[in-house]
Fold this protein.
Amino acid sequence: MNDVRALTMLGIHHIGIVVADLTAATERYQKLGFRLLEMLDLPEQGVRIAAFATGHNYVELLTPLDQESGVARFLAARGDGVHHVAYAVPDLTAALQTLAAAGFELIDHAPRVGLHGWRVAFIHPRSCHGVLTELVEIAPAPE
Ligand code: CO
């Protein structure tokens, strides 16, 4: 059923956390010891993001730019908190095909461009036990 290589999980890539006050949250995470990489808007997703580096992984703080976005609905319903977990895969297109064939409910059936030009796609929380799950395509480390 599965193309094993397509679903090789290279590790946790980042965690996305929704916050109402991005300025305060950014200061708080800097006090926690995280290094701010950048702050930018993704208007097509209706969010402003502060990205932090932590070793080989990242933390994204997300806040809504408008009240129509999924992040705005999440914030209204649940308040600040963990919004999604992202895993790194070597071949996102193949991973999506394999997951679709295995019955996963995909939000994105093809990769879209995320932060830093990464190719990303989301899997519906209904298919991942309540966790919005993002896949990010990362070239595997050379052997
Ligand atoms: Co993300």
Q: What stands out?
A: DSSP finds three helices and eight strands in the chain. The pocket of cobalt (II) ion is lined by residues 14, 16, 60, 84, 86, 134 (CB under 6 Å). The chain has a mean pLDDT of 91. The helical segments are 22-31, 70-78, 92-101.
